[in-house]
Specification:
Length: about 325
């Protein structure tokens, strides 16, 4: 699979990275039941398909996703780029809080190293910003973890321009992890130009809009999801009306365009995110081997200008109309 350099000095990462949120299993923001055997098979299939990096976080399954990733990469650790995060902690009652105190970041890093069964993290990211703790204190701690060799590269996720500027003034930000998909385009206005100018790599999350852009969704499919699947319980606006129906309508228009390349809608949606200059890689989630095998086909090809225009037109006629209301 094609590789792109992550920002100015980062590692060469494949156009698709495997997202390990859903393999965390059951927790407040879980995706319903998930067997570890299926998760381990999925990670193995991702690596066999040429994917060279995995994105996880301590909070995914309250430690469980990291443990599964650690088990999966044991024996081939040096061939896999492992990215994880810090900033979301949980207590004995499984309540999640945001904490970016320097001491907390250090503790989280040690815990992640243990769960991942490794002595270094390739890419360590601040998961979400904190309202009260000055970002300089948190970012300063991230830089010390690099100096100590516990972490190779550092990045942030869900940050705005002000926070990016403040971190960049202390030490170069290797990567930004924002949401980006055919129906989630906020990245394009300010963050993308900022990252291009500052040579910060961009690894986009939820390129399939958490499954909505795979072509398998319908009203019945959403309603039949398990009660503990976050998309049913507290899915974002795209899982609620009026956007939900508009996205389904949009997806219907994508089917013939994808078919023209002998690709699936999911592969088209992934390839679309990779068309944007400045995007280093798309983090695609998968819970089954067949999903990741299919998703790997989202890399290594391009959508023609003409079809990019067709996609845009269809977007404006469906999702665009609803978003502007
Ligand atoms: N930094 C952050 O705040 C943040 C936030 C969100 C995500 N992320 C990262 O980004 C990764 C990807 O995001 P995501 O998991 O939200 O969404 P995604 O990649 O947009 O969608 C992944 C989900 O879609 C379904 N799916 C995947 N491939 C499919 C296929 N070929 N056919 C049918 N269904 C398919 C699977 O769920 P079902 O089978 O259950 O439908 C899978 O879990 C996460 O794992 C995480 O690493 C980070």
């Amino acid at each position: 699979m094609n590789k792109r350099q992550l920002g100015k000095n980062g590692p060469e990462i494949t156009e698709i990275g495997l997202g390990a949120w859903a393999i965390g299993g059951s927790w407040a923001w879980g995706w319903g039941e998930q067997e570890d055997t299926a998760s381990l098979d999925t990670i193995a299939a991702a690596l066999d398909a040429g994917i060279n990096w995995i994105d996880t976080a301590p909070v995914y399954g309250l430690g469980h996703s990291e443990e599964v990733v650690g088990k999966a990469v044991k024996g081939r650790r040096h061939n896999v780029i492992v990215a994880t995060k810090c900033g979301l902690r949980w207590d004995e009652r499984r309540r999640i809080t945001n904490n970016l105190h320097p001491a907390s970041i250090r503790k989280e890093c040690e815990d992640s190293l243990r769960r991942l069964q490794t002595d270094y993290i390739d890419l360590y990211q601040i998961h979400w910003p904190h309202k009260n703790i000055p970002v300089e204190e948190s970012w300063g701690q991230m830089t010390r973890l690099v100096e100590e060799g516990k972490v190779r590269y550092i990045g942030v996720s869900n940050f705005n321009i002000d926070l990016l500027e403040r971190c960049q003034a202390i030490q170069h930000i290797d990567s930004l992890q924002p949401p980006y998909s055919l129906v989630e385009r906020k990245l394009e206005t300010e963050l993308l130009p900022w990252c291009r100018e500052n040579e910060t790599g961009i690894i986009v999350y939820s390129p399939l809009q958490s499954g909505l852009l795979t072509g398998k969704f319908s009203r019945d499919f959403l309603e039949d999801l398990p009660e503990d699947d976050w998309r049913k319980k507290n899915g974002n606006a795209t899982f609620r009306e009026p956007l939900f129906s508009a996205v389904l309508d949009f997806v219907d228009g994508l089917r013939p365009i994808a078919a023209g390349y002998e690709k699936t809608v999911a592969q088209l949606a992934i390839a679309w995110t990779l068309m944007q200059a400045g995007v280093s890689s798309a983090i695609v989630g998968a819970r089954k081997t067949e999903q990741i095998k299919q998703n790997a086909g989202g890399a290594d090809w391009q959508i023609s200008d003409k079809d990019m225009e067709k996609i845009e037109q269809r977007y404006q006629e469906t999702v665009g109309v609803v978003s502007q209301r």
